[in-house]
Amino acid sequence: MKKLTYILFFFSFIAAAQHHSKMIVEVDSDKKVLTVIQELTFFNQTNDTLNNIVLNDWTNGYSSKNTPLAARFSDEFERSFHLAKEKERGRTDHITIIDQKKTFLTWERDANHPDVIQIRLREKLLPNQKVTLSLTYFVKVPSDKFTKFGYGDDGKMYLKNCFLLPARYENHAFVKYDNLNLDDCANSLSDYDLEIKIPQNLTLSSDLNELKKEVQNNQNYYQLTGKNRLDFNLFIDKNAAFSLYKNGSLEVVSDLGNTRLNDIQKAIVIDKIVSFVGDNLGKFPNQKITVSEADYERNPFYGLNQLPVFISPFSDEFLYEIKFLKTYLNNYLHSTLQLDPRQDNWIYDGIQVYIMMKYIEEFHPDSKMMGSVAKLRLVRGYNLVSLGFNGQYSYFYMLMARKNLDQPLGNPKNTLIRFNEKIASKYRAGLSLKYLDSYLEQDIVQNSIRQFLVLNQRQQTNRKDFETILTTNSPKKINWFFDKIIESRDIIDYKFEDVTRTKDSVSFKLNNKTQTNVPIPVYGIKDKQIVFKQWIDTFSKDSVFTVPRNEAEKIVINYKNEVPEFNLRNNWQSLRGFRLNNRPIKFNFMKDLEDPYYNQILYVPTLEYNLYDGFLPGFRFHNKTILDKPFIFDVNPTVSTKTQNLSGKALFFVNQYNRDSKLYNVKYMLSGHYLHYAPDAYYSKIAPTVFLNFRPDDYRDNQKSSIIIKEIMVDKQKSSYTTSEDTRNYQVFNVKYVNTKTEVTHHFHFLGDFQYSKTFGKLASEVQYRRLFDDNRQLNLRFFAGTFLHNKAEDDYFDFGLDRPTDYLFESEYLGRSEKTGLFSQQSIIADGFFKSKLETRTANRWMTTVNASYGIWNWIEAYGDIGAIKNKETCGKFVYDSGIRLNLVTDYFELYLPVYSNNGWEIGDKNYGEKIRFIVTFRPETLINLFTRKWF
To answer: What's residue 713's pLDDT?
Structure first.
């Protein structure tokens, strides 16, 4: 086994104390194991007597499939960690701790927090006393494919929070957090001194100050130091990927990629950003800072990072600016603020986005969300294109607010759902500081932030310190800002009432539709120019406001969108006559952002397929912008290429969101279809439906439940495929209850189904359970039971289907729903019995119960088996079974089933075996999109 002496470390902890400690680290180049010898001097700067010391051990979060980090990956549908090889995981092993009296100390991992260790001191540590501990341990560095931290190819390593560091102490206790891949390790402020040796073919870059560099015994030797630091970064690479840029006394170490810019162009951008941030936030307290590509990839600028280089509408310089600015601000703030990064995360996010918005206003005031695309005449009518660059922050926040999935900014970072944590809450925090800045004016927010940063250089802080500084500096009462904007998820929505005007003045009332009392600005507009602006503070319900008209042609609430308002569509009133309140209609191709000044109708060509209609080209007309709306319509007329007749579908629904209720969403929908159900006949279906959607108070809980109530009315043309008049035209009242909780390692789904019509009545239930075990084998179980309450049908059309339900409610994605033979008849639907073999008896008109199971053999190859019992009128119950091989390519979306043995006997040797193979396939776009978006919501 090849071994390298990789790092010689020596550490010194605790601000205001200069302690010498050494750490020698040997790396096994194959196993990526660091052997660490560490001397730690701990200085008790609290007022408490300590019996224990707590150290953060975040590398241990990678140690198994059962850690909090593993659970987080599973919860967000990240399969790579669970399926990883053992050598790709990380851990801290063989920890030995000795005090200054050469006594071995005991330590243990907290049962509730496996990513910290607690050291039991032999003697109590009084305030202002110190204790020196000698530690030895092994660090197995994880692969960087999980979080960007760890080892990569060719000796590359990014080491951060991989050593045993003292935890933050607050409120008479150590802060114990687990590694959840949130960049919020709560370390104590410390001093660091390091000696590092690495192989001569590797280079080291760090945000610590370099005191010495030389070659010793064919190895590169470094001495580094850092004072009053919360953490540090070490980048080890085969090539000198990092470059050093100097701005005054600050050194910037960066490998941020953009191959189209040369070093001089990058240096100009970096100098501009470092100077801008320094002018707005103050001088960076350390001498060096790193800005790495890995840091940016962990927290990219969402939107820009999705655009391929060859179609990017932004210049290379602008892209580099935004990437560097975002990453630099993130590292600047996390190196400067002594906050609890999990509990007070909104302050980090708020300051970062606030400064980014100021930067765009100063250097790129005319930039658009879609960059140079805005210059194309063809797309100038799109709000998505014409929206200013900073305008996108409000839309990303509103995306979640309109879904009723936004969360209070003051919530701990680990409680936020992924989209809020990465995007919506981050942007709303910046918008909120911008809102307060616009309201207070006189740079009060800007100066308060600078004052808060200065305070952080002297002491550990929390959100109350920030609130105190803002409140003290403000000439107005701003308690509403913390109560309504930060600590709640109350939404804001104002509209005009009783507007009257004269030549010289305008009088109006404001309707506070959500009763969230916060200040709101009112503007007067003439020829798209602002002629007056008036801030309206919190007020009583019937207050009348009168302002000078200044020749205004219309008045607008929140014209510049300073306030993160829920609905902008009711914010304006014409003073020429009120007819303009009826917004004109605007047609847009494909998709657009919501435009508050128009009624938008979007149109898009569509192409679908089924066996009986052939291809179905058509146009879809709808009003679904990127933000959810209270009322949605979606009409899709099509033409059947086989019959040359019109067909299509349509739906209309009303959204009702209930804030702060487990019944968070109610939808009232009316839908209709007109398509072929057989080669020679159409069907039409109308279904008024009510959806009651429930979600737990814990938004990160993936459990969701719904009650669906509908009346399905089906009218079918007569067909040679239909033998009974009872099955031509019918109505079915249907109530379903669905309860689902799903993640990578566990999936549970329950369905209760009641159906009633004059011809039949049914009661059925279904339970699905899926488990991915530690050996990466997967078990799938499904139980179905159904019985008829009454059944007067003359044929099997409404029967339970053992292997292929008839889908008389027209809800399944059949490509050829009436086929008895051929490829389309081999399509399988997860419903009723869900057998794969076609047995002699394929339906049940009394009752049916089945169990479907499959278990992993290797990767996506599984063995499956089905057993069940079915009962028909005037016959005895029958036991049924089948078995075979399942190719589980994408679960529930694309699967193949190869029958082997069943009631029919051995099927695999049949000369027509190809006709026995069954498949599951999904073509519906919204179903496939859910496969990629489920981790975010």
So the answer is: 96
